[in-house]
Specification:
Elements: H1 2-11, E1 16-20, E2 36-40, H2 53-78, E3 82-85, E4 102-106, H3 124-142, E5 146-149, H4 152-157, E6 164-166, E7 185-189, H5 198-211, E8 216-220, H6 226-234, E9 242-245, H7 251-256, E10 260-263, H8 272-279, E11 284-287, H9 292-296, E12 303-306, H10 311-323, H11 325-338, H12 344-363
Parallel strand pairs: 1-2, 3-4, 4-5, 5-6, 7-8, 7-10, 8-9, 10-11, 11-12
Helix pairs in contact: 5-10
Length: 364
């Protein structure tokens, strides 16, 4: 969102305002253009996180009413041409705000895992609530002027809707250099959470390290690393060649210092770190998880896709690339070229055309 807001303001001359509900007084993690305005409604949904269930419900309803009131007043004052919802709590009422703007919804996770309502441990009550919730969401989405998803596969998943558009995430940087593959290092990037599948990655690395004693694995991300630190010891992994690092703001340099990138996610809305690695000339070995990696990687040409969740195949693919310097270099070179289709210039133009199409269609 930051990338697009900055580009629209700086290159297209758009008047951009970002409206948020939490984090008052905190600086944004990513830099924002001086031309982009930020309004914090200071609702404080973060207060819900550690509350007991009943109090959480009561507090949520109260804050949701505040949110609707404050956002309505905000949009009525701004009178924007277009309002984009990131499909958070405002999707419940955004279409009812009569500020004159066209309404667009944007989702950054695939349907199957949106709000995590399709867990395997679901029961009858949960299934009924899930069905009710999804039907209600679909009614809201149908009212939008457009609903933007990240992949063609996810467009097909929302088969009940006829207002779905596909626009991928943009590449977050244009690298000055690409990897020379000089360092014998594998890199993984993402939050320390179940979704990213680091348990699978560490199990695969336990196999790789025994056959490639001069290679190392570095993981970068935020979140709780404790369970994965325990798994490192359980798998007998050499800590001198496997490190779980904190999040970094110099990820481009870290990719440039790596020879292979690995994505062990159980699912991905898109796969931003995949295109970041490829832009730096680093081939990616990834699970063929829903839905992002297969949209980005051409298997065997600019990276490798393996069966989702298959730890043995993940280890084998890493070992194959480690053993073949020429293959890594060739794949990395093709990756840096193929990934240009996700440049901010191309993605921003797709959004611009969408905005103009909506406005022109409404006028006619």
């Amino acid at each position: 969102m930051t990338l697009k807001a900055n580009y629209f303001a700086e290159h297209f001359g758009y008047d951009i305002t970002i409206v948020i509900t939490d984090g008052k007084g905190k600086e944004t993690f990513y830099p924002l253009s001086d031309k982009v305005k930020v309004i914090n409604l200071d609702i404080g949904f973060e207060e819900l996180w550690n509350q007991p269930f009943l109090k959480k419900v009561i507090l949520y309803l109260k804050k949701q009413r505040q949110y609707k009131k404050k956002l309505t007043a905000c949009l009525m004052e701004l009178r924007p041409d277009i309002t984009i919802s990131m499909l958070r709590r405002e999707i419940n009422f955004i279409n009812s705000i009569k500020d004159g703007s066209y309404k667009i919804g944007e989702i950054h996770i695939n349907r199957a895992h949106f709000r995590n309502f399709e867990d395997k441990d679901s029961n009858i009550v949960k299934n009924l609530f899930s069905k009710f919730w999804m039907n209600n969401l679909l009614r809201k989405l149908r009212l939008l002027d457009r609903f933007v998803v990240l992949t063609e596969s996810d467009r097909k998943a929302w088969h009940e809707l006829d207002n779905v558009e596909v626009i991928s995430n943009p590449l977050s940087f244009a690298p000055m250099f690409i990897s020379r593959h000089a360092e014998k290092r594998v890199i993984a990037v993402g939050r320390y959470c179940h979704e990213k599948g680091y348990d699978h990655l560490l199990q695969a690395w336990a196999v790789v390290q025994n056959k490639c004693t001069d290679w190392r694995l570095d993981v970068f991300g935020d979140g709780d690393r404790s369970s994965y630190e325990t798994l490192i010891d359980h798998c007998g992994i050499d800590r001198s060649r496997c490190k779980l690092n904190q999040r970094t703001q110099i990820i481009q340099q870290e990719f440039e210092r790596s020879a292979i990138s690995v994505c062990s996610s159980r699912f991905e809305g898109f796969g931003l770190v995949i295109i970041e690695a490829m832009a730096c000339g680093v081939p990616v070995v990834s699970f063929d998880c829903p839905w992002g990696p297969r949209t980005i990687i051409t298997d065997g040409e600019d990276g490798v896709l393996v069966e989702n969740g298959n730890v043995d195949q993940l280890a084998e693919a890493l070992l194959k690339l480690i053993a073949d310097d020429q293959l890594r270099t060739t794949m990395g070179s093709k990756a840096s070229v193929n990934v240009r289709r996700f440049s901010i210039e191309i993605i921003a133009d797709q959004w611009k055309r969408l905005f103009e199409e909506i406005v022109d269609n409404k006028k006619t």
